[in-house]
Amino acid sequence: MTDHQQNNLLKQEGNCGIVMGILIVLTGILMAMAPVLTVVSLTALLAVGLLVTGVFTLVDVFRRAGMERRMLDGLLGVICIILSFLIFFNPVGSAFGLTIWVAAWFIVRGVMELAGMGASPYGRSFMALDAIVNIVLGVTLFCMNPIVAQAALGYYVAISLMFWGFSVIHRSVLVKHLS
C-alpha cells in the first residue's frame, strides 16, 4: 500500500470516528436531558443504541486494514448486537433487569477498553479515563438500592456515552492528524 493510500485511509478513519463520536456524545446529552423516560422506553432506546453501536463497530472492524484491536472491537460489536436483541424483544421483562444489564455492560466495556489500550498507539489517556469511568459506573449500579439505581440509570448511561464519545473523537482526531 502506498503512503498516499494509507494517508487517505487514516483521514477516512479519522472522519468516521469523529462523526461516530459526535453521535455518541449527542445521544448521551439527549439522555441526560430526558432522564424521566419510563424504564420500558429507556430499554427500547438503549436496545436501538446498542444495535447501532454494534453494527458501526463491526463495520469499522471489517473496514480496518491492520489487526489493531480488531478482535476486541469485533467481540464488543457482537456483544452489543446480542444484548440489543435480548433487550428489544422483551422490554417489559428486561425493564426489571435493566440495571444489572447496564451495570454489566459498563464493566465489560471498561475492562475491554483497558485490555485494548496496549494495542492502540494513540489516545490511551482518554481510553483509560473512559474505561475507569465505565467500571466505576457499573460497580456503583450494582451496589445501589435497586429503586435509586433505576432513577439514576438515565444519567449513568448519559455519562458513559459522553465519555465514550469524547474518547472516540480524541482517538479519531489523533488518527486523522497522523496522515
Q: How would you portray this structure in words?
A:
It is a single chain. The chain is an all-alpha fold and 179 residues long. The chain has a domain at 11-45 and 91-176. Helix content is 86%, strand content 0%. The protein contains 6 helices and no strands. The protein has helices spanning 3-33, 39-63, 70-88, 91-116, 124-143, 146-178. The chain is elongated, with a radius of gyration of 16 Å. It starts with a helix and ends with a helix. The model has no long low-confidence stretch (mean pLDDT 82). One of its GO terms (cellular component) is plasma membrane. It comes from Bombella intestini. It holds the Pfam family DUF308. Keywords: Membrane, Transmembrane, Transmembrane helix. InterPro entries: Acid_resist_chaperone_HdeD (IPR052712), DUF308_memb (IPR005325).
